[in-house]
Amino acid sequence: MNIIECKDITKRFGQFTALDNVSIDVPQGKIFGLLGPNGAGKTTLIRIINQITIPTEGTVLFNGTPMTEETVRKIGYLPEERGLYKKMKVGEQAMYLARLKGMSAAEAAKALKEWFVKFEIRSWWDKKVEDLSKGMAQKIQFITTVVHKPSLLILDEPFSGFDPVNVQTIREEILRLRDEGTSIILSTHNMESVEELCDNIALINKSKLVVTGGTDDIRRRWGSDQVELLYTTAKDRLPAGRSYSISLDDQQKNERRAVLDINADFTVRDVISELNDEVDIISFRKLIPRMNDIFIKLVGGQNKEEEK
């Protein structure tokens, strides 16, 4: 079942079309990556899901029913443009934001205390926000986004401003929330995070949906069919073959490494059979297509088509 269904969403601002007939389904209990270059329309779609703005055309369903003010309370939204009231104390602001999501004072105080203990920031409660570093403020905003245990969590570039240690902490919390049943939309340019975290993705470019589906399916459909070969040979380099072309061939100490593209109508077995007569194979493995390469391939290819 899907927690969010965006059906034929179009959003125009005067003569400018920010989204053009975009449809996506966000499965329950999964991490859904929303990808695209700057200006593609991702933030506009997120704002429509949050009811911050309304679509010119199309509908958004939450658990199969139209969005209402009550369903918006079930969403936790961490925008890319961060903002806390600088003159307020951290604890006062955290309580205020938790109460806005419908928590009682007692519920909010109890839940926030648990989060502050978990993140080892109890001493921050009486600090003013203006005294926090960017990374410290990011932690507070993450906590206030998830404290009311939303059914849907929308994170827009959640790792921006964090050092590697805190990035890992937030990643672990995102995965824990997913495992506990929270549905998550992750909007990011970080393809490493997409590969590590996302079960499904949608790629938007120039207001249009380019591709959507499971990450493994998209890898199989759009990724290059490549293998990595470690080998030795008396020849200067790996010879060209019928079943493969060579993307890389370099020397590593007493052995060589090559990355091969399997040509159309051939299989891994065909490549191995052909190489056995030419080189001494040390190891041979199929490479998993990287989401970064697929992103560049799809977005770059679409942009070139439009330039013709």
Task: Describe what you observe in this structure.
This protein has 308 residues and is an alpha/beta fold. It is built from 10 helices and 14 strands. It has 2 domains: 2-220, Rossmann fold (3-Layer(aba) Sandwich), CATH 3.40.50.300; 224-288, 2-Layer Sandwich (Alpha-Beta Plaits), CATH 3.30.70. Helix content is 35%, strand content 31%. Strands 6-7-8-3-9-10 form a 6-stranded mixed β-sheet, with helices on both faces. Strands 2-1-4-5 form a 4-stranded antiparallel β-sheet, covered by helices on one side. Helix 3 (90-100) crosses helix 4 (105-118), helix 3 (90-100) runs parallel beside helix 5 and helix 8 (215-222) packs across helix 10 (291-307). The mean pLDDT is 90.
Biggest sheet character: 6 strands, mixed
Helix and strand composition category: alpha/beta
Query: N-to-C SSE series?
Result: EEEHEEHEHHHEHEHEEHEEEHEH
CATH topology name of the largest domain: Rossmann fold
Question: What is the name of the CATH superfamily of the largest domain?
Answer: P-loop containing nucleotide triphosphate hydrolases
| Proportion in helices | 25-40%
CATH architecture of the largest domain: 3-Layer(aba) Sandwich
Shape: globular
Key traits:
Rossmann fold, six-stranded mixed beta sheet, Alpha-Beta Plaits, 31% strand, single chain, globular, 308 residues, 35% helix
Give a nutshell description of this structure.
With 308 residues, the chain is α/β, with parallel strands linked by helices. 35% of the residues lie in helices and 31% in strands. α6 (164-179) links the parallel β7 and β8.
